[in-house]
Amino acid sequence: MARATTTETDASVIPIRVLIVDNDEAHAEAVAESLARVGYECTTATSGAAGAAEIEAGTFDVIITDLMMEDVGGLDILAHAKRLLPDAEVILVTGHGSVPSAVTAMQKGAFNYLLKPLDLGQLRAVTEKAAASMQLRRKNAELNRRLDEKFGFEGVIGSSDQMHSVIDRLKRIAPTQASVLIQGDTGTGKELVAQAIHQNSPRKSKAFVALNCAALSENILESELFGHVKGAFTDASTDRVGKFEFAHGGTLFLDEVGDMPMATQIKLLRVLESGEITRVGSNDPIKVNVRILSATNRDLEEAIAAGAFRSDLYHRLKVVTIELPRLVDRSQDIPLLVEHFTKQFAELHGRTIKGMTTAARRKLMAFDWPGNVRQLRNVIESMVVVDYDGVLDVDDLPSEFSDRTDAEASQPTGGLGALVGQPISEVERLFIAETLRAAGGNREEAAGMLGIGQRTLYRKIKEYQL
């Protein structure tokens, strides 16, 4: 007899969740009972519309749907599942007369189809294969994620669509020699991205050299970039190698390149065109082989229009462009970043941190983060340093969060007071809904924030029709 496949988590073994969609209620219940006997967690929907609603509200690993239904048909259920639950496998149940339609469904991504009347042994066998296929795909995705962490992209943390897109672009850019312009607000992690590009490039065994162009005056910046010879200016008591020479064979990262003085821009453009630098105070050119990565939080096209940045240099620097999203635009990554920074700073400062309270997590999720990932990193370090009981809580948050709490408390419709007098079930429903929103719809993260198992959360989502 086939045995239900289960999936391992840190906390427990979670059974495979199966959705059965069939207009025939007795048939749906018979299928559910057969699969439940071997350990599957089954949900039934007795119409196509109800099945679509279940897919929108819950998470399922395998969906078994009748092909021919009165309202929403099996092909519509298949399309709905592929859009909302791309990891799930869909099995079609059909009569002999609609086999061609079932074959069409398989071409559109269905896992298999079964003929009525169902053979229960075949049903269990096909369901087990579908579950195994789903799990193998998830394991491969997890393996790829771990390989990315091991081989250089560990600093670029995120599971949001925005960060998946950034990482995919990095993988394609890194092995090339192309110049890259990294754009994004302050604190979005531009230097981290530059390091990831270097570490995954053929130049990774050579130097990665970073220089902040906004932090230096014109004369000092040119000396830093190109070096100088003894006597080139006051206090130039010895020859000095510049960043270009030091980065020879490797990568030079020019941070805040939009703030580079115009005179230095002209000299940088000449270096990029000729592959040669000349030290300040010297007439002897020196060949250099350097890949240029640059970053800015300014709109360089506006700077060009204002006459503050050279158009020809801009096009030299932006052979490829990477746009980094603000943290508020990828808020579902906050739990991953919090976990990463907590471990990092607990180890750095020799602290034992057992976890973070739900209240503190909600504050972090709701914050505006004008300083982006850098600000979040600093907040977590502060919390780790000031914590005294091993659990990061609201009282460990910096003062800007206290001010926010006071402002929130002054709102008559917000805060705990609005829940007083409400039934417990309504409070729970609102709390779960808000946590799901804070977790960006990620049910696994929401369950962790709530301190409950995923199965319990799935049941509550269905109960409250969230």
Tell me what the structure shows:
By secondary structure, the chain is of the alpha/beta class. It has 3 domains: 6-143, Rossmann fold (3-Layer(aba) Sandwich); 161-325, Rossmann fold (3-Layer(aba) Sandwich); 328-464, Helicase, Ruva Protein, domain 3. It is built from 19 helices and 16 strands. The protein has helices at residues 25-36, 48-57, 74-84, 99-107, 120-150, 161-173, 190-199, 218-226, 243-246, 262-274, 300-305, 311-317, 334-348, 358-366, 372-386, 399-409, 424-438, 443-450, 454-464; strands spanning 6-8, 13-15, 17-21, 41-45, 62-66, 89-94, 112-115, 180-183, 208-212, 251-255, 276-278, 285-287, 291-296, 320-323, 355-356, 391-392. The strands form 5 sheets. It has a 5-stranded parallel β-sheet, with helices on both faces. α4 (99-107) links the parallel β6 and β7. α2 runs parallel beside α3 (74-84), α13 packs across α15 (372-386) and α18 packs across α19 (454-464). The longest helix has 31 residues, at 120-150. The chain is elongated, with a radius of gyration of 29 Å. Residues 7-12 and 404-418 have low confidence and may be disordered.
CATH fold label of the largest domain = Rossmann fold
- First CA to last CA: what distance? 36 Å
Any idea of the CATH class of the largest domain?
Alpha Beta
CATH superfamily of the largest domain: P-loop containing nucleotide triphosphate hydrolases
The multimeric state of the shown protein is: single chain
Q: How many β strands by DSSP? A: 16
Which percent bin holds the helix content?
A: 40-55%
Low-confidence stretches: 7-12, 404-418
Globally, the shape reads elongated
Number of domains: 3
* Strand residue content: 5-15%
Q: What's the overall average pLDDT, rounded?
A: 84
Number of helices: 19
Task: Order the strands across the largest sheet as they lie in space.
Answer: 4-3-5-6-7
Largest sheet: 5 strands, parallel
Computed over alpha carbons, the radius of gyration is 29 Å
